[in-house]
Amino acid sequence: MKTCFFLTLMLCISVIEVKAQLTFEKYEYANRREKLMDMIPDGIVIIRGASEPLGDLPFTQYNNMMYFAGVEIPDAILIVDGEKRVSTLFFTIDEGHADGENISLDLVRNPVKITGIEHYLPYEDFSETLKNRLTKGTVIYTPFSPEEYIGENSMEKFNKFKRTVTDNEWDGRLTPEMQFVTVLSQRFPDNQVLNCTPFIWELRKIKSKAEIDVIRQAARLSVEAHKAVMKNTKPGVEEIKLAALFQQICMAGGAKGLAYGTIIMSDKNHAYGHYMQYDRILEEEDFIILDGGANVSNYASDVSTTFPASGKFSETQREIYELGLFVREICQRLYRPGISLTEIGAEVKKELEKKGLDTSDDRYNLWIRDGGYNHSIGMAVHDRMLNFDRGEPLRPGFVFACDIMGKADEVTGIRIEDTVVITEDGFEILSEGLPRTIDEIEAFMKNN
């Protein structure tokens, strides 16, 4: 009996130790790799991790490497083999370097045990291993779209790189991903090199329970940061101090970073949508949009609040805010599996018309078209999906921003944004806990 108890205890301790090196259990990553293998039965996928930063900054890993392997080691490479149904992890790092970067020494010493990946080889063996593995018919898959660090979104990153670098007549460089594609094609002319980004986006579209738990942590931390900023807002406060406070609360609460640059808009800056200059001192009549989110374990959250600097809503502010809250309540009442955003938008249109509003006005277009939806949320705050149609039925595990935006005039806009997940029987606001009604906001800010 004692022996049985001791063995059970040791097994539990072993599981805890292994999980401590990774964000999720090993089977979570193995399941993702197996699904990827199902999509590439004719070849292999090569996923490259991030290199060390060139400046004096801490190392952070690319999202795709974290998604499929969970390892935060510089210059790691993962081969997922759809033909042989095995994976191989490559990296080289000495223990002193690893310890200095707070990388688990257990992971460095025994990567197969810690990760559950079938094979490990030093980074220096990658080229020869790849050469020996390929047959004439093997297809090489690799992501063509840019890899994401925390706070980045793949296609937005691609568009900016293309505009400022690739299409620049004085530059012309390819993205690192497309440069890798070029080199692969040159070295292995007998093998097709194809894009696996669509497969990855499809896998990342629906989140697992474990992923949702982490996003919930990020969203709840964001809520605390929003509340701290609301509590410290009053006329005469500098926006930059509020931005610093938001980041402090997130980082002190265990965030890995910010999901995106904190947006603070007031006065004329409402017009710019994503204003991050923090260059104003708040005035009595200012109406503030705070759009900010924490990133926890490489998962983002997205939350927006709108509130008056004075703590009291003016009539104009009250009118547009109550209308936004009305639309939010309609949308969230209807979120459930099986319904589409198009259907929700049609219901919003009906309810607005009941209020006597002209729904052909452009101000209501987003509410009607999208049913409160703005974008998917996951490892990136604008998480990419292979395909998404607003007419498709919502599915459990779909995490997105319910983002109610509106504008009364050039200095009075609103964003009431929640991180939301569709559940088996409805939905959950992962970012619950904020004062949302006018009465709640005014009571919360009363003694600022």
From TrEMBL:
Residues 24-151 form the Aminopeptidase P N-terminal domain. Keywords: Aminopeptidase, Hydrolase, Manganese, Metal-binding, Protease. Its EC number is 3.4.11.9. InterPro entries: Aminopep_P_N, Creatin/AminoP/Spt16_N, Creatinase/aminopeptidase-like, Pept_M24, X-Pro_dipept-like. Pfam families: AMP_N, Peptidase_M24. SMART domains: AMP_N. It is an enzyme of class 3 (hydrolase). Its cofactor is Mn(2+). It comes from the Bacteria. The keyword Hydrolase applies. This is Xaa-Pro aminopeptidase. It comes from Algoriphagus boritolerans DSM 17298 = JCM 18970.
